[in-house]
Amino acid sequence: MSAYETILFEADPQCAELRIVTLNRPALMNAMNTRMFQELREVFRLLRDDPTVRAVVIAGGEKAFSAGGDLKERNAMSYDTWRQQHELIEETFLGVRDFPWPVIAAVEGHAHGGGFELAMMTDFIIASETARFSLPETRLGIMPGGGGVQNIVRALGVPRGKRYLLTGDRINAEEALQWGLVTEVTAAGQARETALALARRIARGAPMSVRYIKVAASRGAEVDFHTGYALDIAAYNVLASSADRVEGVAAFNEQRPPRWSNR
């Protein structure tokens, strides 16, 4: 895979349809600078156009997924430069949220500020027992600007979400699991492998089914039930007329693995 300065980008050796993006500034707890945002944007653009991709895992290091934005870089920024960087962040994070295939975050250790926001932009989070999450922006004179406000109140409910937005207090892994912020908590050091194993299982599914389910679930959650259900049925009818539906039913009856064509 191509070399980058602030991230690692690789194919999973066990699954040809899976890609792994690793935040890679370990000396700075994977603090996100302008270069990292640029590289993440570029990678997700490349992945969107790659016809072989079916799932992506975003990981960090053992001590930190990401401590958030690089405040040393921002210390001398003018307002115009800050604004330009934030437009880049918005584009990058929405590229993760709206990515057509499932994206899973594997979180070990610290995930704060923009690092937490990036994790929440994925489809779901696998966290190790060492994970700690927070949105401490009120201590910096700003507010979460990477989707954190909207995502945390949707995950935790408005009152609890406001409590952690306004205080910047940390959420531990068990609390995150109980409140639905993460879907699974692993032993220390196992979040990445657990996320990869889950992504491999997803990648074995019919590609069109996976893609349409993600769209219907993501967009349907933003509207009323009947509008969301209409989206479900529209997608269902496309799948029912697909070659992969014929192949899936035939493979089940013939007791063999399906051979998906993505058609």
Structure in words:
- By secondary structure, the chain is an alpha/beta fold.
- The chain is built from eleven helices and ten strands.
- The protein has a six-stranded mixed β-sheet with strand order 1-2-3-5-7-10, with helices on both faces.
- Helix 1 packs parallel to helix 3 and helix 5 packs across helix 6.
- The two termini are 28 Å apart.
- The model has no long low-confidence stretch (mean pLDDT 97).
Brief overview, please?
Helix content is 48%, strand content 17%. With 263 residues, it is of the alpha/beta class. Strands 1-2-3-5-7-10 form a 6-stranded mixed beta sheet, with helices on both faces. Strands 4-6-8-9 form a 4-stranded mixed beta sheet.
Descriptors for this entry?
48% helix, 263 residues, six-stranded mixed beta sheet, 2 domains, 10 strands, alpha/beta, 2-enoyl-CoA Hydratase, Chain A, domain 1, Lyase 2-enoyl-coa Hydratase, Chain  A, domain 2, four-stranded mixed beta sheet
Might you state the CATH topology name of the largest domain? 2-enoyl-CoA Hydratase, Chain A, domain 1
What class do helices, strands and sheet pairing give? Answer: alpha/beta
Q: What is the CATH class designation of the largest domain?
A: Alpha Beta
- Please compute the radius of gyration using only Cα atoms: 19 Å
Query: What percentage of the residues does DSSP assign to strands (E)?
Result: 15-25%
Low-confidence stretches: none
CATH homolog superfamily of the largest domain: 2-enoyl-CoA Hydratase, Chain A, domain 1
Distance, first to last CA: 28 Å
Shape category: globular
Count, helices:
11
What would you say the CATH architecture of the largest domain is? Alpha-Beta Complex
The mean pLDDT is 97
Major sheet attributes = 6 strands, mixed
Helix content: 40-55%
Run of helices and strands? EEHEEHHEEHEEHHEHEHHHH
Protein name: Enoyl-CoA hydratase
GO molecular function: hydro-lyase activity
Family: Belongs to the enoyl-CoA hydratase/isomerase family.
GO biological process, one term: fatty acid beta-oxidation
